[in-house]
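Hello K.,

You asked for the raw outputs rather than the summary table, so here they are, unedited. I folded two proteins back to back in the same session to keep the settings identical. This is the first:
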Amino acid sequence: MAANMPEPQPPRAAQRALGGPARWCYGSAMIENQRDAGLLRAVGPWGLAASTVCIVIGAGIFVVPARLAASIGAYAPLALLFCALAIGAVAICFAEGGSRLASSGGAYGYIALAFGPLVGFVAGVLAWLGCVLASGGVAAALADVVGSALPAQLWPVARVLVIVGALGGIALVNVGGVVRATRLVSAATLLKLVPLAVFVLVGAGAVHAANFAPTVQPDPAGLGRALILALFAFSGMEISLCASGEVAEPARTIPRALVIAMLGVTLLYVAIQVVAQGILGPALAHSSVPLADAMGRISPALRLLMLAGAAASMFGLLSSELLGNPRLLFAFARDGLLPRALARVHARSRVPHVAIMTNAGIAIMLALGGNFAQLAIWSTLATALLYILGCAAAWRLARRGVAQAGAPLGFRWLGSAAFVGIGSMLAMVALARREELLGLAGVVGASVLAFLWLARGRHPVAAAKEG
């Protein structure tokens, strides 16, 4: 840039989204902003990939194969492949956006940078609310699994102890530091992947070709349910990116981690669906614990292993969500959209400890009063809308040449990836029922009103706007 030319400045809305003044640059120049001052960048590609795998491979994979089979029968692997392609396009956009603004809050940060604080706030609410509801539901399901093995008179007390113990214990590990939290996620990932690997390797020898004969003629409604459920099984990678402010060399680490994680998840999901269908056949559609029932035809011990794997998977999902989701509360508070106390960073462990404990407390209350069964469709629709915003934001930032974390990914066919990602997510939303769409609209509307109320109350965002 010529010496007599002024340095380009971001739009005022983008400055407000950043929560204060920052040096702005285009191209490969670095930016100097203090949004994540005090946090330790210690998460590498394998740690971030493990977190992504752990959160994507949640409790759903232990039940979704049966729901897919009930909706479209033996065609279920095709639904998984379709959603893998759609999520692959979305992941490219998120990797691009994350490499351009690697900040705590993940997609919330770069969506706000691209479209202003209002849209960013809505995106952050969608991401956080969906995740904390899922955390509560999964914790409740974990308590039910443990409680089912105990005498009935002990179950009410055991349920409370399991919920508080699991979420509280994971939160305390996270308060101890991001390195400890990442190690817990890596260990939980291994614990959940071992039973799934056993399922695929052992089950492959018990597959019968006759079980792949079509028994369900897919109709539009069944296809819609199947695709939404498959998307639910694949969703979650955006939560691991909420810890982007603690990722080392984000421009390289984020894309590598997403490629490793999503390719591995796709291969595993398709293999699990094929093996489950090949062992159970038509019975797969009627199973409540399909992986356990499939292994039960081989050995009772393997059935118990699958049930234990389901519990480990639930614990692992909670570990990943409590690593990523509290960073959204931290990001909101850092940017003046929540009480500043939530932006406090622990002096020793250098993590947002208040946000972590607050998130865990809310999840505990939800778990004690709710269940997992009704959350999948609602969570998927909120996630689909978040993905649409994330794809559009990444494309816009790339067009404007924004690069605040070093040299960005610079994916050559980003426009095509954004088109596929946005189009596929719009199709998912279109497949939803009317009451589901009304619920999603209500969440968005409430988020907009909350933001406007904060601004009207002369919140720091409003003050920045007037300045």
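The second followed immediately with the same parameters:
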Amino acid sequence: MDQRVGLRERKKLQTARSLWVTAIELFAEHGFENVSVAQIADAAGVSKMTVFNYFPTKEDLVLRPLEEHIDEPARLIRQCLAEASGLGPLRAFVLKCIAEHDPIVGMNDGPRVLAVYRVMLGTPALFQRAGRFAVQSEELVAETLRTRLPDMVARIAAAQIIGVLSALRARNLERLLAGEKPAAVEPDATADANLAFDLLEHGLGEHFDALT
């Protein structure tokens, strides 16, 4: 019985992966707005209903990988609080992702990964929905921080944390989309991440003081 369940789950994952790959390739070639779910189903050799069983909307075919990471920052903040180690675990996670060229920090130049971002950046509806993911991440971080901090402090801290993560990812991705390789970007990405976390931990005061 367990074996059958395991096989069924593996087949479902394979089907979902196949649908996602097919969709991204079609979107990259023809544009998101110019590809229908029916065309995706036909190219993947399944029914239109099968596509919707795995991906309730066409937008999900692009954004599902990003959506799966919405709760990642909050999970890491919970770890920070549990270990009473400041932002150490979150900094370590980001640096590890940079070293491993993980797409979550904009460091992966796999053709399909870059295709997802090109499609997303070129489609206003997708870009707006991805922006809502950042809002959700921020709300989850704030909710976690409220267990230890006053509400407004939690809100401000959550906005700063998600802003830093978004800025780092955007800068790395910008360079990869321009044709640079992750290995070339990695030293600067690491320095940027350390600078960002130093600013999170110690504030912007000295930088603004230098302007006067």
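The chain has two domains: 2-58, 64-207.

Happy to rerun anything if the numbers look odd on your end.

Regards,
P.
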